[in-house]
Amino acid sequence: MEKHRKKVVLIAVIMLSAFGVFAQGNGTAGITEATQMVTSYFDPATKLIYAIGAVVGLIGGVKVYNKFSSGDPDTSKTAASWFGACIFLIVAATVLRSFFL
């Protein structure tokens, strides 16, 4: 039993020292890979935000048209809020992309 225990301890020490050898380094390769992975998501995310802005603009246009057609006096306020939401989405996507890339 004692011989088996020594083998287990020896194997554990060898494995831990091997992991220590592989873990050494300054980590620049991992940081570079993570940076490349994150920056690769910006183009699709920017396009997705632009598409969401287009859908919001279409929905807002329909809502404003319905209010205008019904003679609602609150049409200009609704138009401004929907237009502002679209502009915010487009500007936010552009600023975030330029800030991080």
TrEMBL record:
Domain of life: Bacteria
Signal peptide: 1-23
Transmembrane residue ranges: 47-66, 78-100
Keywords: Membrane, Signal, Transmembrane, Transmembrane helix
Protein name (Swiss-Prot/TrEMBL): Uncharacterized protein
Organism of derivation: Flavobacterium gillisiae
